[in-house]
Amino acid sequence: MTFLSNREHSLEILRQIIKNKLGIVFNCYTRVELLDEEIIYYLKKSGCHLIQLGIEHIDKEFLKKFGKNIDLEKIKKSC
């Protein structure tokens, strides 16, 4: 369900959508830490119009307590 959990596989899917000019429109679910400029470029170019992000919490202490290695600044930048 989490697109991009396997980066190389996901990139290959996106590249094939572009290469074969499928002209589809889709959305995906992913996590903030899996996004970067390259991924966003390929998502947009392949027809992704909505990225739904799973954000567990915005409290640093909560995240630390449960061993979540999530960069709050990246969440803010991504949104």
Structure description:
The protein has one domain (7-78). 46% of the residues lie in helices and 16% in strands. The chain has helices spanning 7-19, 37-46, 60-65, 72-78; strands at 26-31, 48-54. A two-stranded parallel sheet has the order 1-2. Strand 1, helix 2 and strand 2 form a beta-alpha-beta unit. The chain is elongated, with a radius of gyration of 14 Å.
In short:
The protein is built from four helices and two strands; from the N terminus they run H-E-H-E-H-H. It is α+β, with helices and mostly antiparallel strands and 79 residues long.
Give the structural class: alpha+beta
The main sheet comes to:
2 strands, parallel
Query: Which bin fits the share of residues in helices?
Result: 40-55%
Physical arrangement of strands within the biggest beta sheet: 1-2
- SSE pattern, N- to C-terminal: HEHEHH
Average of per-residue pLDDT values: 88
How far apart lie the N and C ends? 20 Å
Strand content: 15-25%
Rounded to the nearest angstrom, the radius of gyration is 14 Å
What is the domain total for the residues?
Answer: 1
Write down how many β-strands occur, each being a DSSP E stretch of 2 or more residues.
2
Topology summary:
Blueprint: H1 7-19, E1 26-31, H2 37-46, E2 48-54, H3 60-65, H4 72-78
Parallel strand pairs: 1-2
Helix pairs in contact: 1-2
